[in-house]
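User: Could you check the structure of this?
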Amino acid sequence: MIKVTGLFIYPVKSLGGIALSEADLGPRGFKYDREWMIVDSDNRFLTQREIARMALIETSIDEDAGRLTLRLPGSAQVLAVPLEPVAYDSTSKEDKAKTVMVSVWSDRARATVESDEINSALSDYLGQAVKLVRMVHGYRRQVDGRYAPGKENIVGFADGFPLLIISEESLKDLNERLEYPILMNRFRPNITTSGGKPFAEDQWNKIKIGEIELALVKPCARCTITTIDQECAEAGKEPLRTLANYRKQNGKIMFGQNAIFRGSGSIQVGAPVQVL
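Assistant: Sure, the predicted C-alpha cells are below.
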C-alpha cells in the first residue's frame, strides 16, 4: 500500500523547512507554505542559488502565539513575524501605497514588507540589503496555464506549483548510485510517499489522499539548490551529476512531480494514497 510518509512546509522561500504530522490546505497549497520570501533591493526574489547560507536560517510556527520565528545561525536573536495577515483592499490607494510589487521568475506579485528590525537583521546575516515580504492576503498568482489551466490554480512564492511530491523509493534509487547518500531535504518536497516502485510518481496522473484529489501535472526540473547540503550550506556536484545520467529530459534534470489539488481540508502522515 502506498502511504504518505512526510509532510513539509517552507514558510519563507529557500529558508529552512518544517516537518508536520498534519498539513492544512489553503487556496495556494499547504497553509503558510512559501507565504514569505526574501527579496533584494530591486524587489526580486533571492534563493539559495545566490546565497547558500539561507539554508541555515531555521523557521518555526507557533499558532498559539501567532508568530513565525526565524533563527539566524550563531545568534541568540529570534526574529518574530506576525502570522495574522495585514488586511488589504485592492481598491484602496492607501493600501496599495503600503505594498510593493515583487518578482518571482517572470511573475509579479503584490506583497507587504515586514519590519525594519527583521530586514536589518537579515541584511546583516546575508551580507546585502534585503527585505522579508509576504504575499498580500487574497492575491492570486496563477500557475503555468500550459500545465494546469484554470483560474482556480494559484500558488504562493513557490517556483511554480502549490505542491511537490516525491517517493522515498526514488530517493533510495538515487542514493544507491551515489558515493555518499543525501537527505530528502535537498529536494524540498511537500509530500513524500512510500510503498511503490522508484519513480512511480512519474506515472501517476491523479491521486487521492483522504478527500483531497491531486493532479500531478509536471515533472520538477532540478537546479543547483539540490547540490547544497542543507545542514552546512556547502555545495558540491551531486546529486545533479549522477541524476544527469538517467533523469535528463529535454536538457533538464527531473526529480519529483509538481501537483495541483482539488478540495479542502488536511492531509495526515500515514494516510493511504489512492492512485486514480
